[in-house]
Design a protein that fits this description.
glycerophosphodiester phosphodiesterase activity, four-stranded parallel β-sheet, 95 residues, alpha/beta, GDPD, 19% strand, EC 3.1.4.46, hydrolase, glycerol metabolism, Rossmann fold
Amino acid sequence: ENAQDRPIIFSSFQPDAALLIKKLQERYPVYFLTNGGTQIYADVRRNSLEEAKKVALEGGLDGIVSEVKGIFRNPSAAREIKESNLSLLTYGKLK
């Protein structure tokens, strides 16, 4: 009710947080944020677009938000994400 007509999405770099947000509410879309493999983390779900796609599909998330350099490093992932009926958003600088 407080959002009124403003578009809202939830997103998190922590896969478990994104999954929990999705589980707790169905009103707003939830996206998994990823660096797309440009940095490496102990949680392997954060280390590639392929893993991000798995998290999103298995958790019923609405899509993925990737650092743009991760998309350029793996352009076929964008097609695969789209074919999986997930939304794909990007952030970051091209240079």
